[in-house]
Amino acid sequence: MSDLLFPLSTLAATAPDIPAARLSALPPATRLVFRGREAAIGPAGIAFGAELPRQACRFKRSGDRLAAWLGPDEWLLLAEDADPAALIAEIEPAVFGLPHALADVSSRSLGIALEGPRAAYVLNQGCPLDLSETAFPVGMVTRTVFAKAEIVLLREAPERFRLDVWRSFAPYVWGLLEEARRELA
Amino acid sequence: MLIITCPWCGERPEIEFVYGGEAHIARPTDPSALSDQEWADFLYNRTNPKGTHAERWRHTHGCGRFFNAVRDTVSDFFVATYKPGEPRPDLSQDDAK
Ligand SMILES: [Zn+2]
Questions:
Q1: Which ranges of chain B have pLDDT less than 70?
Q2: pLDDT-above-70 percentage for chain A
Q3: Quick one: A9-27+108-184 is in which CATH superfamily?
Q4: How near does any CA of chain B get to the CA of A62, in Å?
Q5: Residues of chain B with C-beta less than 8 angstroms from the C-beta of A164
Q6: Residue A149 to residue A126: CA distance in whole angstroms
């Protein structure tokens, strides 16, 4: 794919393989932002295929569907293999008449995966959060900052993180992650 | 780095937050009934205390929500944080500085 459509393709193709902290660009995915009041939250999760977690900063996964808590009335819905319009058409009838907002933000951000025994160490070069497994366990998600960029950070496994980065910031975040892990080569 | 406790997300670094001015300032229900001085007080004049101050913060790079905090303006110590709509906590007995 061209760099215009996928700004990380050249960077990802030339990235060195560093097993301590592997960096990879994730394939395009459908992303929706759901915001809604109490009555709409449950039905939206059922229609989406993954329950919308009520606990702060947690995500729930079911198959290829992932629902991530971003705020008390705000969730990021990720689906790797779905058409945005079709997914919206599946969810909207379930919350018809209930106060809510459902927006397609698929093109807004790109996914980056960072995996390996030193993944947390590399992330901490730009992100000030405590990434120990007690403070940031598997299944946790949050919006936060990496250097000067806002990111959504998910811990999918003890040594695997997923970053959702705004498209125009993606090469910047990638470059800093690359620089941070170079010492581990 | 200064740690601020978001009422939803817990302890987070200061750089995720944005300051939002003094808290608990209600918009007058009938602005046209106010004198110019009263309206100016609502718009511009703040208590600016030396000591504990109730103020609004927003967890911009987190859950995105506004909340209130009581902070000591001398030491920059956050005495308490609480959700919007909740009353200012009574800290008169609290020696925390
Ligand atoms: Zn928060």
A1: 92-97
A2: 98
A3: Probable tRNA modification gtpase trme; domain 1 (3.30.1360.120)
A4: 23
A5: none
A6: 9
